[in-house]
């Protein structure tokens, strides 16, 4: 019989709540979504920006929730025959449960932040640490004020390695989260002009990201991008936070984990590096120089956490880019195939350039073309139009044949492109979909990318549905 994630008594004690009704004794998981909750999980009725979880307590209980964690002030409005743990504030209670999960765990913990590359690095860590013991990692991009405590509260007591992504859109947001996670190693992937609408400068962004160092456990390591121009600023922030072990990763001679050579291919990369002057060679099963660079940080963290580094390096051959962040799909087009690169989850100037470089590596055949389908990059502030237009030079340099654009900001890029590279422009992604679907040729390589708010994912879904591969068709029966 498997060990429960929590008992209801332990959950009530940790959340400082009181039990009301016939709750189930054992809790198999923690959920904040009544649509996906499974029997035996505890439902936390969080008050969000758009919805109040208390409105869905009945649905969660009907799906077999072990209990619903609810606010005292809302109890009277809920079903009288329900199963409850009643607390003062549900989000605060989730934070207390997260702290209890961290306190009971002997796991070695790594936290990841950075302007770009957080989720990919987190997923590489999940893969790399697995040969050395049970790994718990946050799902998707659960990296904010509710995502981090939710991920921590879900960590089983017998976890050997915990991996947490921590994000922010304003100064001060990372500090309480890193102090909750209390990592033994903290990675800052890079600093770039992302969320710049909320910051006065890139220096301010660097300082906000450096907050992750404030939660490091005594003796913990700061793992910083040696090639980034803010390395010295971040290293000073680490020292100011009392961190004595600072490791730099990158290509510059001063890097502790230094890239020697990378053979970049469409299906992955072979990497030769030096870790503290010791050579290591390994393969990454997904394409992109950005993944190569972040893999150096991954192996540094594995070493700091006491994992088997050769096994971690070997495991990276099995890493695949996550959905929306470079996942590859084969499309069946007529008597041939086309390649779809799904980068639809998010975008900023740095990640756009990295995606263009991946598209350049993609194979095309016959009359196939390299096609970029691009949506607005959001939260870039007053410089947004110029930052969009500035991508035209990168697209030309990477040899991208056709560029389709959507969104008011992407109009600046579309107008900056040479006419020969212009595809179709639309005000919104929905206006592009028909033209994209009707224009696919055998041999094409198509990359779809934009900020989540620009809604590029439906274009990916439309391509996959229209041109389902033989394997996908077989799965559907």
Write structural notes for this entry.
This protein has 477 residues and is an alpha/beta fold. It has three domains: 6-88, Udp-n-acetylmuramoylalanyl-d-glutamate--2,6- Diaminopimelate Ligase, Chain: A, domain 1 (3-Layer(aba) Sandwich); 105-318, UDP-N-acetylmuramoyl-L-alanine:D-glutamate ligase (3-Layer(aba) Sandwich); 327-475, Mur ligase, C-terminal domain (Protein-Tyrosine Phosphatase, Chain A, Alpha-Beta Complex), CATH 3.90.190. It is 32% helix and 23% strand. It is built from 17 helices and 22 strands. It has helices at residues 8-15, 57-62, 90-104, 118-129, 147-153, 174-181, 202-209, 231-240, 289-304, 309-315, 349-361, 384-389, 391-397, 410-416, 433-438, 457-466, 470-475, and strands at 6-7, 18-20, 26-27, 29-31, 41-44, 67-71, 84-87, 108-113, 135-137, 161-165, 185-188, 221-225, 245-250, 257-265, 268-275, 278-284, 327-333, 336-343, 370-375, 402-406, 422-426, 445-449. The strands form four sheets. It has a nine-stranded mixed β-sheet, with helices on both faces. A hairpin with a 2-residue loop joins β17 (327-333) and β18. α4 (118-129) packs across α9. It is globular, with a radius of gyration of 23 Å. The model has no long low-confidence stretch (mean pLDDT 94).
What would the keywords be for this entry?
Udp-n-acetylmuramoylalanyl-d-glutamate--2,6- Diaminopimelate Ligase, Chain: A, domain 1, UDP-N-acetylmuramoyl-L-alanine:D-glutamate ligase, Protein-Tyrosine Phosphatase, Chain A, 3 domains, nine-stranded mixed sheet, 17 helices, 22 strands, 23% strand, globular
């Amino acid at each position: 019989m498997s060990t429960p994630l929590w008992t209801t008594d332990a959950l009530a004690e940790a959340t400082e709540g009181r039990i009301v009704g016939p709750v189930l004794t054992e809790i198999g998981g923690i959920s904040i979504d009544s649509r996906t909750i499974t029997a035996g999980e505890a439902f936390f009725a969080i008050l969000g920006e758009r919805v109040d979880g208390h409105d869905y307590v009945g649905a969660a209980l009907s799906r077999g929730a072990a209990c619903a964690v609810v606010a005292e002030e809302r109890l009277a409005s809920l079903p009288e025959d329900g199963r409850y743990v009643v607390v003062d504030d549900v989000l605060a209670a989730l934070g207390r449960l997260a702290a209890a999960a961290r306190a009971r765990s002997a796991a070695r913990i790594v936290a990841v932040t950075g302007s770009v590359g957080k989720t990919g690095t987190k997923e590489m860590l999940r893969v790399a640490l697995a040969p050395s013991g049970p790994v718990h990692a946050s799902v998707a991009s659960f990296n904010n004020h509710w995502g981090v405590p939710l991920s921590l509260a879900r960590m089983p007591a017998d976890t050997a390695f915990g991996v947490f992504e921590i994000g922010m859109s304003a100064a001060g947001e990372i500090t309480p989260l890193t102090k909750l996670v209390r990592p033994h190693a903290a990675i800052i992937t890079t600093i770039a002009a992302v969320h710049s609408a909320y910051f006065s400068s890139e220096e301010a962004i660097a300082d906000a990201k450096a907050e992750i160092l404030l939660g490091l456990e005594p003796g913990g390591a700061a793992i910083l991008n040696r090639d980034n121009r803010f390395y010295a600023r971040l290293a000073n922030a680490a020292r100011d936070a009392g961190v004595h072990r600072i490791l730099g990763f990158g290509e510059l001679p001063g890097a502790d984990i230094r890239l020697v050579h990378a053979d970049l291919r469409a299906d992955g990369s072979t990497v030769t590096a030096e870790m503290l002057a010791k050579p290591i060679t390994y393969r990454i099963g997904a394409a992109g120089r950005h993944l190569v660079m972040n893999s150096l940080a991954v192996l540094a963290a594995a070493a700091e956490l006491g994992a088997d580094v050769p096994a971690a390096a070997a495991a990276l051959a099995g890493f695949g880019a996550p959905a929306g962040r470079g996942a590859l799909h084969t499309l069946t087009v007529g008597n041939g195939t086309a390649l779809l690169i799904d980068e639809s989850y998010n975008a900023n100037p740095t990640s756009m350039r990295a995606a263009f470089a991946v598209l350049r590596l993609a194979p095309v055949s016959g009359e196939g073309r390299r096609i970029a389908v691009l949506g607005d990059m959001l939260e870039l502030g007053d410089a947004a139009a110029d930052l969009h237009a500035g991508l035209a030079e990168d697209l030309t340099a990477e040899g991208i044949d056709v560029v389709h654009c959507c969104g008011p900001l992407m109009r600046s890029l579309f107008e900056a492109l040479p006419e020969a590279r212009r595809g179709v422009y639309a005000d919104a992604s929905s206006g592009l979909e028909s033209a994209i679907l009707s224009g696919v040729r055998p041999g094409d390589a198509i990359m779809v990318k934009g900020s989540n708010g620009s809604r590029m994912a439906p274009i990916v879904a439309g391509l996959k549905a229209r041109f389902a591969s033989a394997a996908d068709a077989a799965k559907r029966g």
